[in-house]
């Protein structure tokens, strides 16, 4: 891989730095701001359980669909212009959600937001690769930490804002951040179009077949499997962990809620540290080992001694999703070209989220069929085990272009 000489982080790219941070914040705050105020919404109009269920299922489904579509959109529109469109759609969706008049309009506006977020998820790693090729680890840490903060901040303030100013204000407020995020990206879009017009040659012509190539590369599958493992643990825990703890660990609902917050909070130090550790020290195998060991010990504790140390088991379970920021930084480090970064990000997130979407329902069905949580926990142990072979492949220091050239000839 060719790495450009390092230069100061702010030098010539302040707009990109601000834009990436605001984009990352908007993507997660849009997702996390609805569920805490659903009871307030239900006081104005009925929100059927099937609508609530679809809203809960929509994020991974939309992320999967738009993970596939985003590389195609990017080839037609360009990276910066597509970011502007995604942010504009998210802004409109958040305003529309604040103006919802029934369950269907609430669901429709939420789906619109998640479509924009799914596109933005795919674009963040290529944006870092383009504007900060010499700071991939640091900038991945910056945006993944911003996403972590934007995940737990809305639930903290959504209800107080709703109590003070109404749920419509509480929901629509987050559109302000997406709207502000448009400003730097409009500027970057104008700059990118001017630069494109001034270039006589284009040696990196977009290739429509690059996304299809990912299906034939073990490295792409390894990163996708790692992403899916992280997503399955996270989404299943958010859906079922409080209930599991109440049923098998003997904790009360309030304590179970606090333990879920502990699980979520474990992602913040991982978001800060993992991308920098990977980019600077290349300790990919060690981080996989930590994630797998923490996952196994946590699940073993929940299976065999759930009441002995539930805080410890939950904290360890929260360490396992460190694979999420690890994969995000690897999307930039395991590619050489812009098109490959877009395609790899789209493949990993679309397939990974599609697999993730199935598991919260599967865990619920296993519980309903067995009357307990043992089979569900063993299923999660099998999911964690899938990270072992994925880590062996992903840790090898090569790119998807290298792998293609060894197996199929010239990348070009």
UniProtKB/TrEMBL annotation:
Residues 14-412 form the Major facilitator superfamily (MFS) profile domain. It is found in: Cell membrane. Keywords: Membrane, Transmembrane, Transmembrane helix. Gene3D superfamilies: MFS general substrate transporter like domains. Its main location: membrane. It is a multi-pass membrane protein. It holds the Pfam family MFS_1. The chain crosses the membrane at residues 50-70, 82-100, 106-124, 136-159, 171-190, 217-238, 258-279, 286-305, 311-333, 340-363, 375-395. This is CynX/NimT family MFS transporter. It comes from Microbacterium alkaliflavum. The lineage of its organism: Bacteria, Bacillati, Actinomycetota, Actinomycetes, Micrococcales.
């Amino acid at each position: 891989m060719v790495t450009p000489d390092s230069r100061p982080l702010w030098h010539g790219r302040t707009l990109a730095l601000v834009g990436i941070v605001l984009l990352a914040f908007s993507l997660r705050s849009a997702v996390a701001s609805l569920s805490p105020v659903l009871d307030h919404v239900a006081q104005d109009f009925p929100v059927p359980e099937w609508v609530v269920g679809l809203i809960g299922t929509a994020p991974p489904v939309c992320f999967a669909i738009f993970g596939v579509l985003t590389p195609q959109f990017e080839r037609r529109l360009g990276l910066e212009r597509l970011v502007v469109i995604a942010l504009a759609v998210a802004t409109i969706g958040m305003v529309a959600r604040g103006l919802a008049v029934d369950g269907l309009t609430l669901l429709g506006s939420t789906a619109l937001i998640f479509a924009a977020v799914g596109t933005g998820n795919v674009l963040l790693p290529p944006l870092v690769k383009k504007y900060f090729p010499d700071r991939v680890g640091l900038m991945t840490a910056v945006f993944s930490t911003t996403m972590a903060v934007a995940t737990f901040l809305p639930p903290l303030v959504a209800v107080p804002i709703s109590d003070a100013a109404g749920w419509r204000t509480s929901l629509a407020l987050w559109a302000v951040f997406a709207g502000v995020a448009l400003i730097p990206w409009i500027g970057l879009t104008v700059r990118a179009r001017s630069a494109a017009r001034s270039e006589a040659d284009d040696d990196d012509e977009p290739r429509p077949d690059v996304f299809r190539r990912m299906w034939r590369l073990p490295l792409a599958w390894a990163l996708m499997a790692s992403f899916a493992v992280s997503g399955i643990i996270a989404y299943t825990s958010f859906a079922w962990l409080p209930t599991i703890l109440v049923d098998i660990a003997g904790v009360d609902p309030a304590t179970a809620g606090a333990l879920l917050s502990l699980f979520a909070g474990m992602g913040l130090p991982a978001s800060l540290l993992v991308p920098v550790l990977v980019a600077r020290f290349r300790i990919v195998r060690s981080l996989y080992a930590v994630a797998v060991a923490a996952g196994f010990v946590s699940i073993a504790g929940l299976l065999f001694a759930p009441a002995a140390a539930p805080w410890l088991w939950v904290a360890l379970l929260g360490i396992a999703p460190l694979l999420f920021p690890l994969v995000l930084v690897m999307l930039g480090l395991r590619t050489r070209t812009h098109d490959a970064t877009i395609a790899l990000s789209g493949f990993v997130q679309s397939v990974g989220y599609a697999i993730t979407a199935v598991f919260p329902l599967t865990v619920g069905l296993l519980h309903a069929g067995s009357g307990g949580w043992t089979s569900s926990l063993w299923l999660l142990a099998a999911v964690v085990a899938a990270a072992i072979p994925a880590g062996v492949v992903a840790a090898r220091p090569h790119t998807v272009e290298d792998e293609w050239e060894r197996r199929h000839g010239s990348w070009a």
